[in-house]
Structures are given as structure tokens and as C-alpha cells.
Amino acid sequence: MMVLLRSASTASMAALLFCIINLSIVCDAFSPAMRSVRIVTPSETSLLTLFATDDSFVDTLTKRYEIFQDSRGAGYGFKQNMASVIAGEYDAVEVQQKIQEDIDSAPCVMFTWEASPSCKQAIKYLDIAGANYKIVRLDDPWSEGNKVRAELGKMVGRSSVPCIFMGGKYVGGFDGGVGEESPGLVEMAFKGTLRDKLKGVGALKDVEVGAMQ
Predict the structure, then answer these.
(1) Per the confidence metrics, is the pTM higher than 0.85?
(2) CA neighbours within 13 Å on the CB side: how many for 183?
(3) How many CB atoms lie within 10 A of CB 178?
(4) Which residues pair with 165 in a beta bridge?
(5) FRET partner for 39 with CA separation of 20 to 30 A, picked from 148, 185, 194, 203?
(6) CA distance 40 to 158
(7) Which of 152, 166, 160 is nearest to 198 (CA)?
(8) Average pLDDT over residues 138-166
(9) 3-state secondary structure of 33
(10) Is residue 54 classed as helix, strand or coil in its secondary structure?
(11) Is the link from the previous residue into 117 a cis peptide, with omega within 30 of 0?
(12) If DSSP codes are grouped into helix, strand and coil, which group holds residue 179?
């Protein structure tokens, strides 16, 4: 590992450390198991010692760095790159098949994090609209959900949650998407197309609902 440290460029090592810091922030912010853990930034000496003595730790960091570089080289943006880094190594084909099975399992499917404010708002909008929908949680467990989130980001061009599909088609998240066909729930609601879309794919309950507030 010391050879790696000596041969790596300053820019490369800076990018690697930046990934590590961001991974710590993400874990601390979203993982229930990590909320009680205090993140301590190691000193330069202790970091070098850890790199030199813990091969498994070094291998993990090296692989995550390679994932980041590969994702960036493929033309993905920073958020997608980080989603891929967090997901780590996995069988992409297997995850894609699982995603498609979930998408096909109901007329309206929403991939969520339970604690996400945007996901909670999306649920509220769909409930007010009178929708029948299926929730697929990406935080139960995180180890599997992170892989799904990474592949969803590659599929639809947006790695944030919620990620909503109606009739098998991506329609965006809560307040945004990637184009006119996937503007997100807020824009669909304001344009008056949300209930029509739900009805068209068979995801609308046969009940009277009030106006969105």
C-alpha cells in the first residue's frame, strides 16, 4: 500500500480522500446504525499507518476509488458517481432484473427511503390523489437498496429518491425529473395530469378526493 501511496498523484489521492469523507457523511446521515457513531477524522500519521497495516481496508478503499473513476469515465455526474461508490461491487444484471420485476409488479411503484422528506411528500400527494401504489424501500436493508439506487440512477438519469414509475414508465420524483415525460409529481399535479396518468395506468382508487394543498 505504501507503494500505492508513493506512486499515486496528489490529485488522485485527494479524490480518494474526498470519496471517503463523503461516504462517512452519507452513512452518518442516513443509516440508523450509524446515527449514534461519532465520525473521527484520522490524523495523517494514523491514516498512513492504517493504510500500511490493514490490507482489507486498503483493498476496499482502492476498489471504491476505482468504481468512482470508472463511473466518472463513463460520463456520469457526481451524484451518480457517489451512488455507485456507496453501492460498491455487485451484479448489475441481477440488480436490473430485480428492479424490472418491482416496476412490473404494480401500476404505480415508488422506490423510497422511509426518512426522506421528499418521499414523505410524494406519499402524501399520491394519497390525496387517491392512488394505489407500491413502495419499494431502499433502506431496508441499505446494503441491497444502495445497489438498486445506483442502477436506478443509471436507468433514469437521476439518482435521488423517490423514484416513481407509472405503467412501467419513469415519471420523475417528487418535485423534479429528467424531462417533459418525467417532470415529477408536483408539476403533474399543478398541470392537472397526475390523476389522469394514474387512471390511465390503472392506479387510481374509485373514491372522491379533495384538491391538493
Answers:
(1) no
(2) 13
(3) 14
(4) 109, 170
(5) 148
(6) 31
(7) 166
(8) 96
(9) helix
(10) coil
(11) no
(12) strand
CA distance 20 to 16: 6
Q: Report which residue type is found at 128.
A: I
Q: Which three cell numbers stand for residue 39?
A: 465520525
C-alpha cell read off for 201: 395506468
Q: Which three cell numbers stand for residue 89?
A: 461491487
- pLDDT band at residue 55 using 50, 70 and 90 as cut-offs: low
pLDDT in tens, 3-50: 343 344 434 544 554 555 455 444 434 444 433 434 344 444 444 444
> Cβ neighbours of residue 6 under 8 Å, at least 6 residues apart?
none
C-alpha cell at position 130: 387517491
**pLDDT tier for residue 58 given thresholds of 50, 70 and 90:** confident
pLDDT over 70 percentage in the chain: 71
Query: Cell digits for 101?
Result: 420485476
* Residue 197 exposure: Cα atoms within 13 Å on the Cβ side: 25
C-alpha cell at 67: 468504481
Helix spans in the chain (H): 2-7, 10-30, 44-53, 55-73, 78-87, 92-104, 117-129, 142-156, 185-191, 194-200
What distance in Å separates the CA atoms of residue 95 and residue 73, rounded to the nearest whole number? 22
Three-state secondary structure string covering 58-101: HHHHHHHHHHHHHHHHCCCCHHHHHHHHHHCCCCHHHHHHHHHH
Contact yes or no for 112/199 (Cβ under 8 A): no
One-letter amino acid at 192 equals G
- Residue 12 half-sphere exposure, CB side, CA atoms within 13 Å? 12
Which grid cell is 13?
489521492
